[in-house]
Amino acid sequence: MGPTVKLDLTTILEATGELQHFLDLGAARLRAEGPLPEEASEELIFSMADELEEHLRAMRDRQGSASIGDLRVWTRTWIDGRQEALAQKQLQGGERG
Q1: Cα(79)–Cα(36) distance, integer angstroms
Q2: Are 85 and 29 in contact (CB under 8 A)?
Q3: Where are the domains positioned within the chain?
Q4: CA–CA separation, 14 vs 34, rounded Å?
Q5: Which pLDDT tens digit goes with each residue over 18-73?
Q6: Which of 18, 31, 62, 72 matches a 20 to 30 Å C-alpha distance to 53?
Q7: Domain of life, per the record (predicted)?
Q8: SS (H, E, C) the chain
């Protein structure tokens, strides 16, 4: 088994140009949840970061390596999927989903 490299999600998001898209998704999720205590808001954002990191790690493991272009595509695909799911949830359940 090869060495494990810890992903630095902030660096990946900055390098791929996806940081603002991730932050926009986080803001949309927070709006959809309605008013939350600060701790719950932070937990939601950290859980999103954990999900994205797991997704990137799984994609890299499946492919065996990852270029910055791969990371950009995988990140954008994940963000787009979460945005679509959020939009569907809002359509089905109103603003609070």
Answers
A1: 22
A2: no
A3: 9-93
A4: 28
A5: 999 999 999 999 999 989 999 999 999 999 999 999 999 999 999 999 999 999 99
A6: 31
A7: Archaea
A8: CCCCCCCCHHHHHHHHCCHHHHHHHHHHHHHHHCCCCHHHHHHHHHHHHHHHHHHHHHHHHHHCCCCHHHHHHHHHHHHHHHHHHHHHHHHHHCCCC
> Are 96 and 38 within 8 A, CB to CB?
no
Q: Side chain identity at 93, as an amino acid letter?
A: G
- The pair of three-digit structure tokens given for residue 89, joined into one six-digit string: 């949830």
Do 59 and 70 meet the contact criterion of CB atoms below 8 Å apart? Answer: yes
Residue with tokens 């990946």: 12
CB 97 within 8 A of CB 32: yes
Q: Are 48 and 26 a contacting pair, CB within 8 Å?
A: yes
CA distance 30 to 11: 23
The residue type found at 16 is T
